[in-house]
Amino acid sequence: EDTVVVAVDGPAGSGKSSVSKAVARKLGYAYLDTGAAYRAFAWHAQRAGVELEEQASVVSALPSFELDEATDPDHFFVRVGGTDVTDAIREPAVTGVVSLVARVPDVRAALTAIFRRIASETAAPGIVIEGRDITTVVAPDARVRVLLTASEEVRMGRRSAELTGYSPEAVGEQLKARDRADSRVVDFMTAADGVTTVDSTELNFDETVDAVIAVIQSRS
Ligand code: C5P
Predict the structure, then answer these.
(1) Which of 62, 87, 138, 196 lies at a C-alpha separation of 20 to 30 Å from 80?
(2) Any idea of its EC number (predicted)?
(3) CB 131 within 8 A of CB 39
């Protein structure tokens, strides 16, 4: 039996992580959060003391990067060299620098190889892989490819509701700055050929999950 690959891309705050996780849970699929891997590498590079603005310096942290990321949507964790960084990678200190490491081509190539290996080792029935370049670079041949979008206003509102303790303005500014930096490297705002757009602006969480599942079912 084939393992169905579901590729989900979208901007920050589109809800793609929580939606992808819920879809995986409902279908009994594995779940791979590729943003968490980029965050884990940013955490590692910072710790290794690299010059984050210098691409060659960032690349020097790759050989010592040991990533262990769970693909079970019910027991999610991320470890780097044995250290649990599941919570640390959500801190603004990491979120603020992740785009600097994600723009480095050698970093993208190394992480893409890791994601493809994890997907190829995943047993049936399937895996939901979520990120920015999954439908276009990591898994362009995936059976199901979805671009999850939402208006900027809705995305900023959802993200600031998640991050209690930070002002909505600060959250909004960081989100916009990150989208701007990220979109110079990967186009995750327009659907590539064959990619189905799910716009969640007018949908609640459950409706969005159902819309993605409907796309998956239409491809089976
Ligand atoms: O999805 P999340 O907000 O956790 O992603 C964190 C960062 O990782 C993004 O801002 C982007 O810089 C990077 N990323 C990427 N390609 C992916 C997933 C994430 O460049 N496939």
Answers:
(1) 138
(2) 2.7.4.25
(3) no
**What's the alpha-carbon Rg for the chain, to the nearest Å?**
17
Residue closest to 101 by CA, chosen among 173, 53, 64: 53
Count of CB atoms situated within 10 Å of the CB of 2: 8
Pocket of ligand 1 (CB under 6 A): 12, 34-35, 38-39, 98-99, 102, 131-134, 178, 182, 186
pLDDT digits (tens, 9 = 90+) for 123-153: 999 999 999 999 999 999 999 999 999 998 8
pTM of the predicted structure, to 2 decimals = 0.95
* Distance in Å, CA 133 to ligand 1 centroid: 9
> 9 near 188, Cβ under 8 Å?
yes
Please tell me the residue having the least CA distance from ligand 1 atom 19: 35
ipTM of predicted complex: 0.99
Full strand arrangement of the beta sheet holding 144-149? 30-33, 126-131, 4-9, 144-149, 196-199
DSSP type of residue 24: H
25 token code pair: 């849970």
3 three-state secondary structure: coil
User: Are the C-beta atoms of residues 19 and 128 closer than 8 Å to each other?
Assistant: no
Q: Residue 215: which of 135, 133, 97, 103 has the closest Cα?
A: 135
Asked if residue 138 lies in contact with residue 115, where contact means CB atoms within 8 angstroms, the answer is: yes
